[in-house]
């Protein structure tokens, strides 16, 4: 039997967790147009801490989704770029991005309706 992401011990589950992480989706999207430096990524992905950015970038490099290139300059310059695997991953993530943008109004309407129905009336 092949990989089964529904089995908690399967490595594909870990990969799905990684690519489904909110920061991975945003980092891969930010790098779609070309390489960026760490500080540029931090500015582009609003709300991510430096610690989480560092951890996520390290994991994505380890998984072969990004490359990290250090240039011998003063101060040191490091760029992150999508690999072929990362560019391939960016395609379905781009579809998710488009879906979210196209359907956000409908989702907000559903949320508002749900909240109105499930919020206790004030006394």
UniProtKB/TrEMBL annotation:
Residues 10-108 form the HTH hxlR-type domain. The keyword Hydrolase does not apply. Keywords: DNA-binding, Transcription, Transcription regulation. InterPro entries: HTH_HxlR (IPR002577), WH-like_DNA-bd_sf (IPR036388), WH_DNA-bd_sf (IPR036390). One of its GO terms (molecular function) is DNA binding. It comes from the Bacteria. SUPFAM superfamilies: Winged helix' DNA-binding domain. The keyword Repeat does not apply. PROSITE patterns: HTH_HXLR. This is HxlR family transcriptional regulator. It comes from Amycolatopsis rifamycinica.
